[in-house]
Amino acid sequence: MAELNYSDIDQDGLETLRRPTWPYFAVLTVLGGVIGWFFTCWIYQVHAGMGVAGINSPVGWGVYISNFVFWIGIAHSGTLISAILHLVRSRWRDTVSRSSEAMTVIAIVTAGLFPMIHLGRVWVFYYLIPYPSQRQIWPNFVSPLMGDLAAVFTYFTVSVIFFYVGLIPDLAAGRDWMESRLGPDNWRTRMCRRLAAGWFGAASQWRHYGRGYLFFAALATPLVVSVHSVVSWDFAVGILPGWHSTIFPPYFVAGAIHSGLAMVLALLIPMRSLLHLERIIKPHHFTAIVQTMAVTTGVVAYTYIVEPFMAWYSSSPVEQEFNHWRNTGQIAWMHWLLVPLNVLVPLTFLVPAWGKRLRWLFVGAILVNLGMWLERRDIVTAATMHSFLPNAWGNYIPTWVEWSITAGAAAWFLFWFLCFSKMLPVVPITELKGQLAEHQSEHVHEPLPADRGGRVARAALGVLGIYGDAGRVLESLQKARQAGLSGLEVFSPMKIGAVEARPGGPVRYWTLIGALLGAVGGFSLAAGTAKVNDLIVGGKPVISIEPFLIFTFEGLILFGAIGNLIGIIIHARLGGRRGLPAAYDPRFSRDKFGLFVACADAAAVQRAKALVESTRPEELRVIAPA
Predict the structure, then answer these.
(1) With a cut of 50, which residues of the chain have pLDDT below it?
(2) What is the model's pTM?
């Protein structure tokens, strides 16, 4: 980002929050109409019964479950880009991470609709929740469906927390930006002020924030693998041909990331143009996404080759018959489309003449998502349509109700993504500024002030120097320390110094305690439920270690993330009602840096003022008690 300055990043990143024009509201109105039709069809299905859907005997899982698996897969790329690439310090993820995280949260919410829709009697959804009841009907924790519920709930909760924590510094920038343009009493200003939770960008806040965000990334990373692996076990633990396969977990994970990255392309390309983000989202960012897709394309292509090979190599007549039917039967058209859409189309992205054309990337990304939806439909319905015995073979054709609800879910997803694009910053402004600050301060290795929990920043008396770049404020901090001054605090619009280089600090203890409690609680919940009636399911012992480890792991991640959030809130002093410190300047969230020296008396103020003045700040203030 060397060619952009802080003001340019602010201008491009925050100007997206301006009041939208009438075409935006027109599109929202159309999407709202489709969503209205979606809920109308759902209510009709609830009233008329599941007979209005195409599911039948033997096909008990249809388009609704296909949609559930598809939208869970769409959510995976957000965690991949935000968590894994953050851990490996990939620079290109900073530009696209915010939209990917929003896409993840909205996609999980969209996916969560379909188990309810498929349930039919949606008003008894609470039967799935493990709680003591007079009916003494407890969920079966040996079933992969319960693991599915736990994994998706954990993924949703962690994704929402991760998304919100990443937003906090940008919400503070939005708060100050809107207050200067819309006034302090505007509803959008008040919304940003509350969501920013009192963030003022002091070094003591950045230290805990940086460490906590790193722990969030570490906790979210295994979810990329675990969630869709658990979803795949809904099928892989079945004995039906086409489902009973050990390749399903990596197959599902790779396919999920594949479709998610394609959705990132499909959303970012028009958003870049419509919101005028060409200076921030550049062609090489799309190239990086395409190169990542090349890896998942290889994995998906490998599974397409291995599946028929294993059917032949197994010498199982049932598997061979199923493979022959899938390639020649009534769903052969769908099966044969998978290779062109999911393998050949993304391979064209690697051809320079094609991969640089954003219009083709957009069209190709939509084709890939169509292919991945067809793949989910093929996996979910084919095995039950053509299982072991000919007398159990059947057919499945979705009805207009199912197609309407499927289209309505897509409109639901786009509706909320469009709302996000105008309500919140769509690019991580502080991350982009951090790259510029790193370049400015690379010659200065001054550690930030010792952690005082923000108390120095809230001192009633002191001297404040305001600077134009990160290097200058760190040089001034160095000079103040050499002069023997104490009670120092640095304000900045992004992380500077060695905030992330030292992963210690008190936040880690909150994370560790939450993770341990979650692991013990998850296993205890599953084991205690099983012991209520000493049920033996599938020949397994009452206390089944292997399936119960799923809930142990999900509990570890879920409560570890919650503990991490609590640690950040406590140690970064967020969420209080004390307001912003007197030394805070709204420019500290945009393009200025501050060095504050807390003083005990008037004589100390004069000494600090002389020292700060010698560092040649752009502006010098004496902060006095109100």
Answers:
(1) 1-2, 498-503
(2) 0.91
